[in-house]
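Researcher: Here's a chain I'd like modeled. Treat it as a single chain, no partners, no ligands.
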Amino acid sequence: MANPFLEQLGQRALLCDGAMGTQLYGRGIDFDECFDALNLTQPDVVREIHQSYIEAGADIIETNTYGANRFKLEPFGLADKVRQINHRGMKLAREAREIAGTNTLIAGAVGPLGVLLQPYGPLTEQAAHEAFAEQIGTLLEQGADLLMFETFSDLREMLIAVKAAKQVGDLPIVAQMTFAEDGRTVLGNTPEEVVRKLVELGVAVVGVNCSVGSQRVFRVVQSMRAVNATIPISAQPNAGWPTERHNRVFYPSSPEYMADYARRMVEELNVQIVGGCCGTTPQHISSMHSALQDLNPASMLNITIVDEEAPSVQLPSKSAETTQLGRMLADGAFVTSVEIDPPKGHNPRRCLEGARQMQAAGVNFINVADSPMARVRMSALPMCNLIQQQVGMETILHFTTRDRSLMGLQSDLLGAHALGVRNILALKGDPPSFGAYPGTSGVFDVDTIGLVKVIAGMNSGVDTAGNDIGTPTNFLIGVALNINAEDPDWEIDRLHQKVAAGAHYAMTQISYDATELDRFLDKLGSLPIPIILGLMPVQSYRHASFLHNEVPGITLPKDVLARMKEAGANGRAIGVQVSQEILAAAYDRIQGVYIMPSFGRYEMAAEVLEVLKATNV
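Model: Modeled as a single isolated chain. Structure tokens:
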């Protein structure tokens, strides 16, 4: 499955966001401050700006990391904070997208280093390469959909940045230069030269940003298009030439003026990405959105059209096997599921689109997590209901004892059954101490074995007090299985207790080691219930190292870590390959696979499942 940015790029003109720096300035941040450091010190302000651009209709938002390289951070005493600032910049953009519930693409913003290359300055090409690789590696690791290089005036520096990006990973690159009044960069590069050099390096998009205003950018794009009729081009001008009034900076171009030029660039020059640079606001982007509406399909700019006739899941009501998952497991069929985390806000559109994407890839079921890592998200139950009703895919509800009293557990289960959500994964839940809410305590009236007994009791027609609930429920009860447990004997004994309590299937923790998985399954012996294997394809060596060293319960073998380190720019492909190898090796010993794509990269889940075609499933 292709990168989502490249898929959309080939279908329609995309709208990028506007200025970050001038928006921060407008909120009282002085130009002398380090804007990138605000990711750490004033994250709410940065997130709010991202959200305003998403609400205006932007297809792409750029992280607040334009100057987050070691050289630009050094004057602020922050050269050692490159990773933290870029990490938080990506996180804030992802949170804004999740709160909005849209499919907005996130571009990792990378600007020039702020130091001249030799012989004009002190910077060597090697030092420049290392600085770019350091920043880009974190942006890739944290889930950027693409890289947006902008406001480069030195083509040689741009080429170094592109090469560093290609060494670090495989993200699509939008490479944007800025041009002076004579139509050349400050160091004398022409638009034609820029296009030829960047096309040779295989960037996805060549473009121009800043460069004062729309008219000048239009002329530069004309020159670019004249030398190459097919390369995708981006155009993101300033809102005119800035002026100062009463100690405040103003930009003269109106939203209507910039929107008119944006439309012209798409219609006349076949520009594939338009947006704004310095001085542009959400109002400018909103006007561009309106101007471009009739040039693109109805799906333009994150609009999700809900099909009122979309099939809803109809579930029989007599036995546990009557869910689709129950029938497939009873028939010995191999099942596939992909996890979707509910949004941090109340808009479910991105989750629904992810489910549709997985449905198109042939996935059988969608797992919906219950506030993973003890971070507040939309309740998993309504998210399951929305997916089942609007997408037509059966879901597996993660149901935890962490947040519910014994009475609350039963009430929510009855509600889930009434909504047609019948597949339950009974879990304890991540402890509140993992989250960002100090003082919050868990409930834990029952443990997971107790929860299984509660659900099994309902399947027999009674609640925990022995009261008749009428027609028995028909939940299919799933439980967790830690194949990485330090004490496998204890874990296996625990599984047998869950089965005795009424469990129907088990879903495992993440596996990265086929040999250890085999050892665990050998020790388990004859499977008491169907086992569904958990996988999470890693995206890079840094991602793998983070999981190995900082996430409890996840251990990557040395050979996998070595492969990810050697993979370099090919990290995501190797991460998918590792998961495919484990799935292929375990295929005959399990009855399904459950994939947890990090950062919502659903296309990676689909790529892992491609290996099943080779097994003639």
